[in-house]
Fold each of these.
Amino acid sequence: MKISMPMEGKTKTWVHTEETMRRQRERAAIREKAALSSLGIFGQITIGCSLYLYDHVSTPGYLSILLTLPFLLLIQGTGFMLMRRSDPGKGAILEGAGEIAGRILAALLALLCWLDGQLAFYALCAMVSNILPTVSSFQVALAIAVVVTFALGGQGNQGLARLSRLIGVLVFFCIFYCVLIALPYGNGGHLFPLLGRGMGSIFRGAFWMCGCLSGACLPLLMPLENKEAMTENRRLLWKHSLLALLGGCGIALLSGYLLPFYALARPETMGYRLLLLARISPSVAGWSLLVCAMLFLMLMTLGAAVQGGGKLLALSGRRRKIPVSLTAGILLSYVPCGALNIQPLEDIFLQLGFFRPVLLLAVLLILWMGVILKKRKKAPEQEAEA
């Protein structure tokens, strides 16, 4: 019996075929993108808790986050629908709206990412200023902008997604440890009154927090190299997005468990509220771990927003890669607000937060209508050819 050997001298098994290895690499890349997206969502929810929920909703803030679940399902489901009906090289934005209108919509979505990045940058500066009150706020803001520019420049955008899984694990265990040591200092009675100021404040909080979830669908609207793999592994994106939402809900619930209604809602700086879990217990280790976890989380949230905004602006300007100058320009534009760190700026951010879900839904609606109109135009042509 003759044994045929491959001409190229390679052996093939069911484990190490080229197709299997390619699928493994694609799945790993999608898992990294999903991890980065979920870190960005969790970071934005954490920022929203400190900036809006604690003050305006207080202990029922976890209900506001739970009420954002239908919005998450809507935008991510719409993102998958648009992705499946688009050309992978063009992406859902250009496919649904056309070349010119698509570039305008990409710029609008880039504005949404810019605001997400500004909130993350502001939160990071506020936390560092709270930890190091004697250091100049301007120096802190400028140092963060320069360091993140060098980190994301060149091939740094690819490394951000690869690093997200490791950072996510570190953040989870650090926060989990802080939760364990803080639980004995809480009281179930702090969660009452159950509805706080009423359902009106809870629904307003839910609407504001909907703007924190844009990272769940924006990656699906951009040009993709592996559209089929993204469709096959869509459960990864669903799972990571839901875990990020539930994680943010858990943080809000724990905060209400630790502090009563008026103590949680009292006026404090954003940097103070971001480190709230470590202030309840006297543990030095808990304080150190939470500071590290929040620094990593805010940096990853900032990086995800800058990367998303850079891709959208590059798409709007017909560029395939993000120039380093564009990354530097985005980060330097955050410095003035991060350095000022004053209450009027927070009030502006609070008002702008209500426009984030409106802008996102408007863009998704335009893209969906564009897909429907193109489908109707193609139907008579297909019938004529038949």
Amino acid sequence: MKEMKKNILFMQENLNRLLGTTGSSRYNTKPIYTLSLKLDKEIVKYYRSLNGN
């Protein structure tokens, strides 16, 4: 569980860094979209594990 939380924080930091370094016209780039999807999946897994599902 601790490892999941570290992965989520790491992905959030990377996503924030990418969003901070790209121009507003580049928000729909594939790396940002892909990282955002991975982050969403990890967050869902984390909360499911907290609930025991």
Amino acid sequence: MKKYTIKDFSVGDKVYHLSNTKLKMVAVEIHNDLNEISCRWVDNDGKVQCIEFMAEELGKASDLGPRVYSI
């Protein structure tokens, strides 16, 4: 897995938290001054969730290989 910094992410990137590769999220805001990325996903109950993560906590979903992603 590649280590990323805040400069490696763009709005719209499909990402995952390094501790859970099964949960795919979308980067919806980049906060360079805070080194945080706001990510959004739909949970198992169909509710939209949004939370901020440090860039170093995230990986790009494309690194996980060719798969069909549903977000």
Amino acid sequence: MEEFWIYCDVCGEECPHEVLKSRTSSKRGFSFQGVVKCLECDTTRSTEIKEEPPLKLRLRISDDNQTKKDFLSIDKGVVLRVGDTRPHPDGLILITGLEIGNKRPSQAYSQDNPVVWAKKATHAKIRFAIHEGESTISVKQEFEYSEAFKVGMKIRIEGRIARIKAINLFGGKLVKTAHAIEISRVTCTYEKNKKR
């Protein structure tokens, strides 16, 4: 038995309806024409349902120094924000930027057709800028996406203990605490005489 949850005029709310007769199409979105029976009040009526096809936005997924071109299927009217996560066939992605023409807004509606810049959200590669005297070392290290970092915290990088001095999010904002997936760069200094 095929069922739909649709609005029933008699019940005054969404209820399960049994499909008695139907004709469907998925050429341009999804359309349904048929006869349905409300399973709450037994009212039989004909109905038509039309859903627009999802939009296909251009997607750029960054992975270290490589960028993969793809598409993001999304419904019309959805607000996309930098910092939000979205489902994707390859796994969860984090939106790191939006591009509409020459502009880089922090949020946009899906129908504005932005180019969506993102990275995979299962793990995060964080770039560390470690100051040691006159020199600065740049190191990348992978963490679970949900691991938390805060200014003043000690962390082991390449076998040495470093103290976090600053945390930069995507978009350049400086913060005191953040999760690995949100972080663009962490500035640190090595602790003296703290070798493994």
